[in-house]
Amino acid sequence: MALIEIAGLEVVFAARGEAVRAVRGIDLSVEPRESFGLVGESGSGKSTVLRALCGLAPVSAGRALIDGRAPPALGRIGSRDRAFARRVQMVFQDPYGSLHPRHTVDRVLSEPLLVHGLGGRRERDRRVEAALQDVGLDASFRFRYPHQLSGGQRQRVAVARALMLEPSVLLLDEPTSALDASVQAEVLNLLSRLREERGLTFLMVSHDFAVIDHMCDRLAVMQQGRIVEVLDREALARGAVREDYTRALLAASQAHAPVQ
Amino acid sequence: MSSATASWRTWLTSRSPRSRRQAWLGQAYLGWLSLLRNPVALLGLAIVLLLVLTAIFAPLLATHDPLAQDLAKRLSPPGTAGHWLGTDEFGRDLWSRMVYGARVTLYIVLLVVATAPVFGLAIGTAAGYFGGLVDVVLMRLTDIFLAFPRLILALAFVAALGPGIGNAVLAIALTAWPPYARVARAETLTVRNSDYIAAEQLQGFGAWRIVTGHVMPLCLSSVIVRITLDMAGIILVAAGLGFLGLGAQPPLPEWGLMISSGRKYLFDQWWVATVPGLAIFVVSLGFNLLGDGLRDVLDPRSASR
C-alpha cells in the first residue's frame, strides 16, 4: 500500500460567507522512500494539499491519509496527536516566519524531544548537537536567536527541527523559494543527502521545475485545484508532456534557467 | 576592574553564546542598553525605583510616627521647625505620612499587577488561540466588564464587600483586566496563524504548552507596556476610592485619603492636600514615562531585532 494516499481530496475554505474551493478533487499516491513533487503556479492549491495532509487545512471531502491514518485537526482543544507528529513533519516556505522569534535554536530543537519524552537532559543535549551537525551548522549556533541567523541558516534549523522526531515523511513547502540561488542549492543538496541517509519519503511543493527536477522521482502538475498531469523524471527529461499547460509552465521555467 | 567589565561585556554580547543563560542575559543586556539610550524612560525608572526605595526604607526616612497626633501643632505650614512639609489637621507630620503612603501605594500597585494582567492575559490568549465559541464567550464577557465605568464598578464592589484597602484592590483588579484581555487577544491573533505555531502544533505540542510557552511570551511585552501605562490610572482610582472613603480607612496614610481630608482646608491650608497630590502626580508620571520607554525596548516591531 502507498505511504501517502490522497483520494478525491477537496479543501474548501469559508471566507466571509463565500466558499473558496482551493483543492477540487485530486488523487495521488506516494510510495515509501519516493520523492514526489507538486508543481504549479501560485494559487493552484499545491501548498493546500500539503497542509491538508498534516491537519493544517480542513479536509472537506475525500481522503488524505499518511500510513493509513487521517491527520489530526490541529489548533483545537485536545487535538494533539503525538504518534502522527513522529511520522510526519513539515518544512515551511518562509524561514523568517517558521522559527519562534524569542526562542533559541537550542529550545527549538530540544522542545520536541521534551514533549515526546525522548531521552533525559544529557541525551537531549547530545541529540541537539548531533542534529545541528547533521544540517551543517556547528555548535556555536546552538544558543543563538533566529534574528542572529541568515535565511539559509534558519532553513537549516527548520530542517533540523523537522527531523528531531525522526519522521519517515517530510512535507516540504517550497523550502528554498525564499533563499537566494547559491544557498538554495546548498539546502536542496542537504535535503537530498538526508533523504538518502534516512530513507525519508518526500512530498515537495514548488513552482520551480528545476528544483523539482533536481529533487523528485515523480511529479504532478496542478492548476486551479486540480491535477493536470503526472509525470516521472524521464518523461520530463524527454519532454514527453501531454498537456499544453505543463508545456507552458516548462517553457516559462526554462526561459529563466541559468545558462550552462 | 575595567578589564573585568570589558570581558563581561564581550561575554554578554557574544554572537555565539555557550549556554541558555548566557543567551538570555545577552538579550536582556541589549534591552537594557536600548533603555539607557532613552533618558525620559530612565527618569521614569528612577521615579519608580525611588517609590520602591521609599517604601522599603520608610521607617528610616520618616521623621515622625505617621499616626502620632500633636494637636498643638495642627495645620502648621511647610517649613515649620521639625515638620518641613507641615502638618495636617491632627498635627501629624505630612512628610512622614507621605513616605509611609508610598508603602500603601506600592502594595496596591503590586497586588493589582499580580492579578489583573495575569487574568487578562489568560483570557485573551485562550480566546485568541482557540477562536470560535471560546472566543465569542470570553470576549463578550470582557465586553460586559469593559462597558462598566471603572470607578462606578469599583464603587459597587466596595459597597458590596465593605470598605477597606484589600477590597479596593480587588475591585480595581476586577475592573482592570478587560483591557489586558483585549491586548493579549489581538497579539495572539497576529501570532496564531504563523508558521512557527503551525510547526509546533505539528510537533505534537499540546494547546497548554503552546499558549503558555509560545504565545504568552510574545504577548507579554505589549501587556507589560500596558501595565506601566495603566499604573497611573490604577493609582488614581485607588486614590479616588480613598478620597471617597471607600478604599483605605483612616488613619492609614494613603495619599487619596490624605487629599480627601485636606479638601476641607484647601483654601487656607493648601499644603495638606497638595503634598499627597504631588506624590500621586510624580509617581503616575514616573510610571507613564517608564511605560513609553519600555514600549520602545520591548515592542519587537519597533526594535531592530
Main attributes?
heterodimer; A: 260 residues; alpha/beta; Rossmann fold; 6-stranded mixed beta sheet; 3-stranded antiparallel beta sheet; 9 helices; 25% strand; B: 305 residues; mainly alpha; MetI-like fold; 73% helix; flat; transport (chain A)
Q: Could you give a short description of this structure?
A:
The complex is a heterodimer of chains A (260) and B (305). With 260 residues, chain A is α/β, with parallel strands linked by helices. Chain A has helices at 46-53, 82-85, 105-115, 121-134, 151-163, 181-198, 209-215, 233-238, 244-256, and strands at 4-15, 18-30, 35-39, 61-66, 88-91, 169-173, 201-206, 218-223, 226-232.
Overview of the structural elements:
The complex is a heterodimer of chains A (260) and B (305). A six-stranded mixed sheet of chain A has the order 5-6-7-3-8-9, with helices on both faces. Chain A has one domain: 3-Layer(aba) Sandwich (Rossmann fold), CATH 3.40.50.300. With 260 residues, chain A is α/β, with parallel strands linked by helices. Chain A contains nine helices and nine strands. In chain A, 36% of the residues lie in helices and 25% in strands. With 305 residues, chain B is an all-alpha fold. Chain B has one domain (46-298): MetI-like fold, CATH 1.10.3720. Chain B is 73% helix and 0% strand. Chain B has twelve helices and no strands. The radius of gyration of chain B is 23 Å and the shape is flat. Chain B starts with a helix and ends in a 7-residue tail after the last helix. The mean pLDDT of chain B is 86. Chains A and B meet through helix 2, strand 5, helix 3 and helix 5 of A and helix 2, helix 9 and helix 10 of B.
